[in-house]
Amino acid sequence: MKHLSARKALRRPFRFPAARAFAIGIAACALAAPALGQAQDDRMTPIAAPAQPDAIELGTGALPGATAKESWHRQYGSRFARNVTVATLTPFLPDPAKASGAAVVVAPGGGFRTLSMDNEGYDVARALAARGVAAFVLKYRLRQTPADMAGFERSMQEMFSGVARTPLPAPASAATDLAPQLADSTAAFRLIRARAAQWHVDPDRIGMIGFSAGAMLTMATTLSATEAKPAFIGNIYGPLGSMTVPQDAPPMFAAIAADDPLFGNRDFKLIDDWRAAHRPVEFHLYEQGGHGFGMYPKATTSTGWFDAFVRWIDMHGMLKRAR
């Protein structure tokens, strides 16, 4: 499972829900859900940073004021990165014989303090590439956490016990609050479009999918007036509170579990807002699945979200190969 949410405003009408969610969301770490049949080892075990030979630096610079270096740990059999100070994009390209021309930027979640690189990043990208979709895992810059694992775990324990929670600051624009992350997502779209011919990608069929905090970044990227406008978006267990939907909003696929401890008991007005704006939207509310189900195989119907997402983008003509 994972992270939590934030209340932010992109423009004034764009608000992420609830002050408490904001305080938790900024601080939360990955609470990964174990795979079916896998030992439920929730310990965070430090690991060496894996080789990332295909990762491309996005050129957005180092995180201002950062002192802690990037580090990785394993939990529930998956790898997580934290203290990311330099953003990268890792391509997962389909077999040319299967390539559809569609592409997706994949934004893992982790409360903007860590990134679920396997469950919500690499595993998603590999599955998309197998369906003929070029996928690009965005390792965006994160808020700093204590460099040592013990300090990081203490900070998380304090956050969940309420010790480290700070009062909600005055509402600010997402362009300010998420400035490094928005710069990273914009640079990702710019790079894919610049190399579209090399990667056999149609510049008009580049979408974005995000998980929890990554879903928040996906929505911020979509609703900010930037060059990074996705052709379609996936909001996977992100907050679904009301916001102003622009007339040119892309088709949206949303999925969440009713027993999600973070957002399952909140309203889903974003779906109504999308419909009121006469924009295409598909919404899956699963009975069970918790938060952070991602690509973990679980004995719940939430495991079917990926197949539904691929069928949905196909329905919108995104997987039609150019003749």
From TrEMBL:
Stored Gene3D superfamilies: alpha/beta hydrolase (3.40.50.1820)
Pfam families per UniProt: DLH
Domain Dienelactone hydrolase, chain residue ranges per copy: 121-294
Protein origin, superkingdom: Bacteria
Signal peptide (UniProt feature, chain positions): 1-32
UniProt entry keywords in alphabetical sequence: Hydrolase, Signal
Xref: InterPro entries: AB_hydrolase_fold (IPR029058), Dienelactn_hydro (IPR002925), GDXG_lipolytic_enzyme (IPR050300)
SUPFAM superfamilies, per database record: alpha/beta-Hydrolases (SSF53474)
Name under which the protein is recorded: Dienelactone hydrolase domain-containing protein
